[in-house]
Amino acid sequence: MELIKVAFMYDFDETLSPNYMQEYSLFDTLGMNKEDFWAHCNDLGIKHNMDGTLVYMYTILYFAHLKHIPLTYDIMKEQGKSVQFFKGIDTYFERINKIALSIGIELEHYIISSGLKEIIEGTSIANKFTRIFASSFAYDENGEAIWPAQAVNFTTKTQYVFRIRKNRLDNLYNKNEVNEYIANKNLLLSYERMIYIGDGFTDVPCMKVIKDKGGISICVYDPEKDKAKLEAERIFNDKRVNYIAPADYTSNSRLTQILTDILKKIAVDNKLKNY
User: Fold this and answer.
1) Predicted pLDDT at 1
2) Whole-model pTM?
3) CA distances (Å), 180 to each of 74, 183, 198, 249, in order?
4) Which is nearest to 222 in space by CA: 252, 197, 254, 199?
5) What is the pLDDT of residues 43-100, one digit of tens each?
6) Comparing C-alpha atoms, which of 50, 59, 73 is closest to residue 27?
7) Which of 52, 165, 196, 271 would you label with 42, given CA atoms 20 to 30 Å apart?
8) How many C-beta neighbours within 10 Å does residue 44 have?
9) Rounded to 5 degrees, what are φ and ψ at 110?
């Protein structure tokens, strides 16, 4: 039996992890507290009318150079070891993959994040993903970060949805690949087999694209933060997502049940098409 390919796409900060990834140890490496860092970003962004992702990436480089900290890839990746996750993540991928495989589905997982790829690649779950699409730095001949290589913000995230759909995963410099028209629809991953999981307004463009094209979008929220739940409810009431659920990845959670039922529906729909 040929397996059905399905893609789960995740934001990272406040979707898989309760906090921004930079807050676990990077700010300590820079000798700063998070309040001062984000305040500096806010002032700089307002002053120069800068994109938020470029602001925080510039600020990291600025303070690293100011304090003579050699910000290498290995140092950045090391920060990922301290990143914490929502309940159940440690076993979630094995469980959901097993469920998918049992009903004839090959499940692929992708990250689409405005956070730092280097940090994500240092986390305990980095090897669970087919690709990690996130902001990243370019490095000089000494291996030190000098400039953004990729700066992913809330609207440019949608590029990676189309890259996944068209299986154009690697050559990010080539803008023509992602915009190429593919006449043979059998070469495309259907939107009905694409599921996006995010946590808030920065994920709305991806959520809306997937939902409007016939896929499924889910807004998760930290159950310990009332504001996060209210934001998820607003996004749901505005019809930008199909479902909302607490960011709980344990086996009996509402989120796991929703994802399991989505996989089962995809498998049944595929079976019915073949009658």
Assistant:
1) 67
2) 0.95
3) 35, 10, 27, 36
4) 199
5) 999 999 999 999 999 999 999 999 899 999 999 999 999 999 999 999 999 999 999 9
6) 59
7) 196
8) 16
9) -130, 145
